[in-house]
Amino acid sequence: MVSGTVHVEAVLKRKKYYDYFCWSEYRPIAQAVFSPVDASNAACGSMMNNTAWTSGKAYRINVRPKDDRRREWGEYTRTVSLHVVKMNGGNEVCRRPLGDVSVKFGADVRLSSCKTYADPHITTFNKIHYDSFGYGEFVLYRHKTLNYAVHAITYKCNGRASCNCGALIKIGNDVIRIDRCPKRRRRRSLPMKAYLFKNGELTPGTKFGIRGRTFIVTLPTGTRISVTKTQLGRVKFVNIDIKPSAADVNKVEGMFHS
Length: 258
Known about the structure:
Elements: E1 5-12, E2 32-34, E3 45-48, H1 50-54, E4 63-65, E5 75-88, E6 91-106, E7 114-117, E8 121-123, E9 129-131, E10 136-143, E11 148-157, E12 161-171, E13 174-179, E14 193-197, E15 207-211, E16 214-218, E17 224-232, E18 235-243, E19 252-253
Antiparallel strand pairs: 1-3, 1-5, 2-4, 5-6, 7-8, 7-18, 8-9, 10-11, 10-19, 11-12, 12-13, 13-14, 15-16, 16-17, 17-18
């Protein structure tokens, strides 16, 4: 009778310097995790109980790509080395190699950016183009399950159209406002400024910075929002561009969704 537990362990044979690592142990696994897991609980192995070990039946190990919010281009193959590790009371008793298995990874989702620019013209994630000439605050992007959203602020410009003049980015309980909207009694637009309103500590994983005329905010999922200062003639406005992550697939609503 086998006592203790048997742990089936997989170690990826490192091939390139940019291979990724398992969260629980510093082992390179390059996107490979064992089901059932999610993005916040990447597993380096699969536990097999004594009943399965002594049954004599084939034991199926499900390996799938890890949803790590990164974009992948094309397909690539990695070699996973399998071992059986006998554990008793939390201690390793013995280890036996099972052999190597080739696992193919690759992206089956093509992500595209969406944007609103000028007065304003809108391109959705699905590459649908349309115009919106209303004034006020509009929901461009809102995640259906996570507490993230991007709103655009528009004002009357050029006497007959509306223009983007700012953006509100909601990340959990925090809000980043990027603003160059004119004051009510002042027709000139203001210099573009960013304001951070946070409730306690900033939501972990949030990043923001400046690159030239562009403010860039990155959500914890990897979704990136760019707000760029620009003008056409005397009309000053901002362009808003969102590059989605894998976490946005089929989970977005708002003017950028179609």
